[in-house]
Design goal:
Radius of gyration: 17 Å
Number of strands: 0
Shape: elongated
Structural class: mainly alpha
Length: 137
């Protein structure tokens, strides 16, 4: 019961907003030395981007998965497409904002992003194999 509620929260817009809030707070904290106004702008921007990417990341991965010509290429397209889109957007926006510590700002999200992108890409592969009637463990 608790796990199903947690899963529903994670998949919801509210979950995206809450998760983005954690990353936004981190971005604010590591850039506070740039002044309160800059830190607030960086934190709010990172929160917005994180929430957007969390909510729309699944759609991006599904789109990229469809670009592959064979199943494992589809997994690679989904994973790489998601990672490139995510970090190109994050780095571009933080560069435009003048974020002084971009790498430190993005660091806490790197491993969760890799885990989510690889896990979801493999889930798409598994779903495709099941739809094709292939026995999946």
């Amino acid at each position: 019961m608790i796990l199903s509620r947690l899963h529903a929260l994670i998949d919801s817009p509210l979950g995206a907003l809450l998760g983005g809030g954690l990353y936004g707070a981190w971005a604010f904290a590591v850039n506070h030395h740039a002044g309160a106004d800059n830190a607030w702008m960086i934190g709010l921007s990172h929160w917005s981007l994180s929430a957007f990417l969390t909510f729309f990341g699944v759609r991006i991965m599904r789109l990229c998965y469809g670009l592959g010509r064979w199943p494992l290429m589809s997994v690679a397209c989904s994973f790489l497409g998601s990672m490139v889109f995510t970090y190109a957007l994050l780095i571009s926006v933080h560069t435009a904002l003048g974020t002084p510590k971009i790498l430190l700002t993005l660091a806490p999200g790197i491993l969760p992003t890799i885990g989510f992108a690889s896990g979801y890409s493999l889930l798409l592969y598994r779903e495709e194999r099941i739809e094709d009637g292939v026995q999946v463990a």
